[in-house]
Design a protein that fits this description.
- It contains 6 helices and 9 strands, in the order αααααβαββββββββ.
- It has about 190 residues and is α+β, with helices and mostly antiparallel strands.
- A hairpin with a 4-residue loop joins strand 5 and strand 6.
Length: about 190
């Protein structure tokens, strides 16, 4: 909606007041907040007036709070217990996630570009879905790759998104110390 259309939609004659609010020249008035909430009852009026609390009244609309660590996943996830999350954000459609971290690697190519944020869920090796992306932690490596089954019994094939520049890794499943399934990817366009 344009600002003028939104103003008319909530019952204001003109959009000038909303333009002033957008520019930061005016705060939102109780009258405007009540008009917004009358048309959008899922919006919390206290949040609209003060910025405090949650944007949505209904907890089912709020989404899942996911702690975000502003560090590279391949460099830092093995020492997750030592880290403090920078912020939490909500991501409703991805479901159950434990944490989010940046991915600064290049092995995943265009599939997960460097600078993306990956939303992760801790899982166990028995739950691996071949063809899905995982962060794999072993004694020797920490990597984000596509996990596929291997011809050899008890081994997994870790496949890069950019197969022209990165080779597959053959890994005994028994060497996995921790495993995180990539539940979502936020690609940041600068």
């Amino acid at each position: 909606m344009s600002t003028n259309y939104f103003a008319r939609y909530i019952g204001l004659a003109r959009g000038e007041n909303l333009y002033q609010i957008k520019r930061g020249n005016n705060g939102i008035s109780l009258d405007v907040a009540e008009r917004v909430v009358a048309k959008f009852p899922q919006i919390d009026k206290l949040w609209l007036l003060t910025g405090e609390g949650q944007m949505f009244c209904d907890s089912s609309l709020r989404g899942v709070q996911i702690p975000y660590y502003n560090v590279d996943v391949e460099q830092s996830i093995a020492r997750l217990g030592e880290l403090e999350s920078n912020v939490s954000f909500m991501a409703q459609p991805v479901g159950d996630c434990d944490l989010a971290m940046r991915y600064e690697g290049h092995a995943m190519g265009d599939r997960i570009p460097a600078g993306s944020v990956v939303l992760l869920k801790a899982t166990d090796p028995e739950s691996i879905i071949p063809g899905s992306e995982y962060v794999i932690i072993t004694q020797k490596i920490v990597t984000l790759r596509i996990v596929r089954t291997a011809d050899e019994e008890g081994k997994l094939r870790l496949v890069a998104g950019d197969r022209r520049k990165f080779d597959d890794i053959l890994l005994p499943a028994s060497e996995i110390k921790a495993l995180y399934k990539v539940k979502g990817i936020l690609i940041i366009n600068s």
